């Protein structure tokens, strides 16, 4: 008799959600976690703490730039960095404790320690071997190393160290204009750090709609971030008082250097697969080092499943959560399903950036006939009232059927607005369906409706 029906390895958003769903479906479940708190990267050193710092630094920005306009004549607040980090840590604590509570409520055993799989049906934690009919690997990801650059998490940091700096640096070089680099870069820029982003490609946020990329970069520049584009970072020298970052311009083939107090390396993440015993078990990996699964998250070894950042697909907490729920359902004999065509992506800067479905560039490459409905937040009364008129909603729909194919937003609450479009896409809706849906006034979401109207006879307020 196995001790458990399911043992989940890892308690990040993929793992803890999988564990809860397994328990809800009547399966005896345990979750292995070696950190001192549950929640994985996302809750401890990722999504949640970065959102706390984004919120705090945005409030500072509002006080500095918009309070006086609204007749709020208080002096702009001074930053107490230790207190701000305390607020961030409290936020983490509330969330990780919340998962602990949910584990107790659902009678999920937390096996404390780092787990490995000595054989199918077994999970070793410390010296103890537990048995399980099914194992779900949700081991997540870690920052990928950049050759020639040594991370000390003090002066040369990944996102983990960037959330815990001793003091607000005077200057920072961010390597990589992806999600992490831009979110954390904008935190420090708002707190007064001189931030220079060095990006290998010619556009920021690879894979995003090109119009959004351009608008986003313009807005970030306005907020004080500097950009060096088309440049490959070669090395970081920490022997001096400041860190010296050396990079090569890809087009001109010239080498340059720049000094900064802190260097943030944000050049992507890689799946965590070491230490699990996968090689000995014969679990197949992809050529990019991800655990290979079928469409129902089964690895090639019976009884072993994998989800989240450790497998293929975008490294997003919500994608991992969906896979966690679906894998639990498959194990319970139900029909777990994830629609990979409708997974939103959000960047939590100010303004927020959000997208779902196809970009215009992808539709062009596919040779697909499409139409664009675009609406500027300048035409949205609510956005103007809160200094958020810069930005737009861009909806892409099939030219003939009017079916929504994608949406790209930059503007206020974009990360929330995107979900009405996700729901519409899940239901196979047309742009007209959205346009005919009454939207409350005055809300930011009216801009979504206006973009949908722009796919037809035209938006009203543009
Ligand atoms: P990323 O893959 O989004 O961006 C990395 C950037 O670094 C790319 O633009 C790349 O061209 C550039 N780069 C690589 N090597 C370079 C070099 N030597 N010199 C200059 N530039 C170089 O990776 P990032 O931002 O580290 O994020 C990792 C993962 O975490 C992503 O999959 C992201 O989706 C996820 N994430 C998502 C968040 C969200 O949804 N809000 C927040 C944070 C992370």
Which helices and strands, and how do they pair?
Layout (H helix, E strand, L loop, with lengths): L3 E6 L3 H12 L4 E5 L6 H6 L1 H19 L15 H25 L3 E4 L2 E2 L5 E4 L2 E10 L3 E3 L12 E2 L1 H4 L8 E5 L3 H12 L3 E5 L11 H13 L3 E3 L2 E7 L5 E7 L5 E6 L1 E4 L3 E3 L6 H4 L22 E3 L10 H15 L13 E3 L4 E6 L2 H7 L3 E7 L4 H5 L6 E7 L5 E8 L2 H13 L4 H5 L10 H9 L8
Parallel strand pairs: 1-2, 1-6, 2-3, 6-17, 8-15, 9-10, 9-15, 10-11
Antiparallel strand pairs: 4-5, 5-6, 7-16, 12-13, 13-14, 18-19, 19-22, 20-21, 21-22
Bound molecules: 1,4-dihydronicotinamide adenine dinucleotide.
Short description:
With 462 residues, the chain is an alpha/beta fold.
Describe the structure.
This protein has 462 residues and is an alpha/beta fold. The chain has 3 domains: 4-143 and 270-331, FAD/NAD(P)-binding domain (3-Layer(bba) Sandwich); 156-267, 3-Layer(bba) Sandwich (FAD/NAD(P)-binding domain); 345-454, 2-Layer Sandwich (Enolase-like, domain 1), CATH 3.30.390.30. It is 32% helix and 24% strand. Strands 1, 2, 3, 4, 5, 6 and 17 form a 7-stranded mixed beta sheet that branches. Strands 8-15-9-10-11 form a 5-stranded parallel beta sheet. A hairpin with a 5-residue loop joins strand 4 (115-116) and strand 5 (122-125). Helix 3 runs parallel beside helix 6. The longest helix has 25 residues, at 81-105. The chain is globular, with a radius of gyration of 23 Å. The mean pLDDT is 97. Bound molecules: 1,4-dihydronicotinamide adenine dinucleotide. 1,4-dihydronicotinamide adenine dinucleotide is lined by residues 146, 175-181, 183, 198-201, 206, 232-233, 266-269, 314-316, 346-348.
């Amino acid at each position: 008799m196995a001790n458990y029906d399911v043992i989940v390895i890892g308690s990040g958003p993929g793992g803890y959600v999988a564990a809860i769903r397994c328990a809800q479906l009547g399966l005896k479940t345990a979750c292995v976690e070696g950190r001192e708190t549950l929640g994985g990267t996302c809750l401890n050193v990722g999504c949640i703490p970065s959102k706390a710092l984004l919120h705090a630094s945005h409030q500072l920005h509002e006080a500095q730039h918009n309070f006086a306009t609204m007749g709020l004549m208080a002096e702009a607040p001074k930053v107490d960095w230790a207190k701000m980090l305390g607020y961030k840590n409290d936020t983490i604590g509330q969330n990780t404790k919340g998962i602990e509570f949910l584990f107790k409520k659902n009678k999920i055993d937390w096996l404390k320690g780092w787990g490995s799989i000595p054989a199918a049906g077994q999970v070793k934690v410390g010296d103890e071997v537990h048995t399980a009919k099914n194992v779900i690997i949700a081991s997540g990801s870690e920052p990928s190393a950049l050759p020639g650059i040594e991370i000390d998490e003090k002066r040369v940091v990944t996102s983990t160290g960037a959330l815990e700096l001793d003091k607000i640096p005077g200057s920072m070089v961010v390597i990589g204009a992806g999600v992490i680099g831009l979110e954390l870069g904008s935190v420090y820029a708002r707190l007064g750090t001189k931030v220079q982003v060095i990006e290998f490609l010619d556009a920021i946020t690879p894979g995003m709609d090109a119009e959004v990329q351009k608008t986003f970069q313009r807005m970030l520049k306005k907020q004080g971030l500097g950009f060096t584009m088309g440049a490959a970072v070669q090395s970081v020298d920490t022997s001096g008082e400041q860190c010296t970052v050396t990079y090569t311009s890809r087009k001109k083939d010239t080498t340059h250097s720049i000094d900064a107090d802190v260097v943030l390396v944000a050049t992507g993440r890689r799946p965590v697969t070491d230490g699990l015993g996968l090689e000995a078990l014969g679990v197949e990996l992809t050529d990019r080092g991800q655990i290979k699964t079928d469409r129902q998250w089964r690895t090639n070894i019976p009884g072993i499943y994998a989800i989240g950042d450790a497998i293929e697909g975008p490294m997003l907490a919500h994608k991992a959560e969906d896979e966690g729920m679906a894998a639990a359902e498959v194990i319970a004999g139900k029909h777990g399903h994830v629609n990979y065509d409708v997974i939103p992506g959000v960047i939590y800067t100010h303004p927020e950036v959000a997208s779902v479905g196809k970009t215009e560039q992808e539709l062009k490459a596919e040779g697909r006939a499409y139409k664009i409905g675009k609406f500027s937040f300048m035409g949205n009364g609510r956005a103007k009232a809160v200094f958020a008129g810069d930005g737009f909603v861009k909806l892409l729909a099939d030219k003939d059927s009017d079916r929504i194919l994608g949406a790209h937003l930059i503007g206020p609450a974009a990360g929330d607005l995107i979900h009405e479009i996700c729901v519409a896409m899940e239901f196979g809706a047309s742009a007209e369906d959205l346009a005919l849906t009454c939207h409350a006034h005055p809300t930011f979401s009216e801009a979504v409706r206006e973009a949908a109207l722009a796919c037809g006879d035209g938006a009203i307020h543009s």
